[in-house]
Write a structure and sequence with these properties.
- The protein is mainly alpha-helical.
- The chain has one domain.
- The chain has 8 helices and 2 strands; from the N terminus they run ααααββαααα.
- The chain has a two-stranded antiparallel ribbon.
- Helix 1 runs antiparallel to helix 2, helix 1 crosses helix 6 and helix 4 runs antiparallel to helix 5.
- It starts with a helix and ends with a helix.
């Protein structure tokens, strides 16, 4: 099990480094794509290792299992948004949507139980339960829309990719810098300081969603031509 823990920590560190790199380099460029693929592989490895340790050691499964499943789901669906599978994509989408929907509903119940018990459920605050519940329900609703209307194009497609990758990075950063702060050297283990990397991801995600989803501007994203043409920004396949 020590090996699983080592894999989990190593994959998490690689995921954070590659995730922050992908967050700040030119979107759609070669470095962005390479860093993004490393991030996907690292996050999936981290999620599987974390899930395995949680189940085998019974380490706060009520919050760690949803975190692992949601992280894996977000990076997979984000990747398939820009690199669609040619075979079996619909069953994968349906299966992931149903799993995340069920997990989200369970998390919502746990969140309300925590509130009813004074703010915690078995020592875990209500916040992570509601965070995973709302995110999972929002993401599964987006999958349902795609199943009904078809694949996204233009700004809608890019926005789906960006927010899912960014939120997976947000979960990893939140877990490491705030949830596992004891692994950080004590001199810099200052809550306000550790919150900065987490806030950077959140602010960056909000900025890109405002720019791509609401302003529908794809300017500066490599490989996208004529970013302000209406036919690109809202069109669906």
């Amino acid at each position: 099990m020590q090996m699983t823990l080592l894999i989990h920590i190593t994959a998490g560190a690689v995921g954070l480094i590659s995730g922050y790199l992908a967050l700040f380099v030119a979107k759609g460029g070669r470095l962005h794509r390479k860093a993004g693929m490393v991030f996907v592989c690292a996050m999936l490895t981290m999620s599987v290792a974390g899930f395995t340790m949680t189940i085998s050691r019974d380490i706060a499964p009520a919050v760690n299992v949803p975190a692992a499943l949601l992280t894996a789901y977000l990076v997979i669906t984000s990747l398939t948004t820009v690199r669609p599978l040619t075979i079996g994509s619909r069953p994968l989408l349906v299966g992931g949507m149903l799993v995340v929907f069920v997990v989200s509903m369970v998390d919502a119940v746990f969140g309300f139980e925590a509130v009813a018990n004074g703010g915690k459920r078995q020592g875990i605050p209500a916040f992570p339960f509601f965070l995973f519940a709302v995110t999972g329900l929002f993401a599964s609703a987006g999958d349902l829309r795609i199943l009904r209307t078809g694949a996204l194009r233009g700004a809608h497609r890019i926005a789906r990719h960006l927010w899912r990758m960014s939120f997976a990075l947000f979960i990893a950063a939140l877990s490491f810098f705030l949830g596992q702060a004891k692994v950080i050297p004590k001199p810099i283990r200052i809550p306000a300081l550790l919150a900065i990397p987490v806030l950077i991801v959140l602010v960056s995600m909000i900025y890109w969603m405002w720019r791509v989803r609401f302003r529908q501007s794809l300017r500066g994203i490599v490989g996208v031509r004529a970013p302000e043409v209406p036919g690109l920004t809202g069109e669906r396949a």
